[in-house]
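User: Can you help me understand a structure? I only have the sequence.
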Amino acid sequence: MSIFRIFFLLIFFIIISCKSDEGFNDSYSDIYDLPITPFNYSNPQFPDTFTDYVFGFNNTPNDNPITNDGATLGRVLFYDKNMSVNNTIACASCHLQEFGFSDNKSKSIGFEGGSTFRNSMGFANVGFYSAERFFWDHSAATLEDQVLIPIQDQVEMGLTLNNLVNKISALDYYKPLFKNAFGNEQVTSDKISKALAQFVRSIYSFNTKYDIGIQTTKNIFIDFPNFTAEENLGKDVFNGKKTPEAIASCVTCHLPNATPLHYEIPIPEGANQVIFSGAEPDNIGLDADINVPDNGYGAFLNILSFYGHFKTPSLRNIELTAPYMHDGRFATLEEIVEHYSTGVLAHPYLSAHMKDNKGNPRHLNLSEEESAALVEFMKTLTDYELVNDVKHSNPFVD
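Assistant: Let's start by predicting it. Here is the structure, written out as tokens:
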């Protein structure tokens, strides 16, 4: 056989192979719009402010690293209304990209129109929740556990795991997705859990006005050159620079394992200045006593001293995730600030850092200017790239 014939045969097989790949993807193009080469979920380019110390918060288990094909499968599952018993609700119904993967309701709406028990939390950087527990009451031990619980909830999505596996197995468009992600087409609840967790963990946020500033100064206590005077004032309220005599400030709960930073300037090398979610649940004095419908972490543990304690969620994209708190009681950021300024109540199990040196509820007593500035600072944590990123958007054509 001549070298020219061999060359043309090679070209022929390459063309056939490429056409086969296109046909493989096009076979379900009427259902979902996915690229032939998967989006990059597994290797995002983090800025250097995500230090080795910050990566120590990473809760990704060894048996479920993020892969491009796994997160792609998770993306389709996340947006698929077949994940509910009557095909009306998807995971994304309560976690909308435009709202920072939260929603705009005090309580989310389930498959029959009923209200869920708690407010929907945003998903930014959940892979860095250092406590490695999920839900407002920390009742899910891992993200892999968490993603399956709403599916089985009789208000939210209403399926059993067996019914879920049977439904997804009957949908042919999942066959290539499971094969790419896990090497075969078999559907199991464990694979669904892992794929969903991979997609949710891939929702990283690091493209904000704040991130530009912290990359410039490497120090949250120095004025950011890209901030307005009001935003820098709000940052100083947040980080406690305005109140160095206080027991704690916003930074205590929302930059875990990095406080008290204002006692160490320059700050410790590699300190966390980018993960704005708390490590442990706290009681922030929302209620005066335990005679309320939801006592959070304490009710889950059945330990009285933890009654009224709830997860400290991420502040990233907080501008988009209203209403706020576990029950959605606050409609605006201004209401949240007013709570910390003057509204903390003397709950019997109020967290220690929420008390003054006499044991009374600690109030920041912010001026009107400081309150407005703190709100403007929180808005610098909005990641417009994330909430418009196609790789985290709804892949379904219809």
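Now, to help you interpret it: The mean pLDDT is 90. The CA atoms of residues 9 and 47 lie 46 Å apart. Let me know which part you'd like to focus on.
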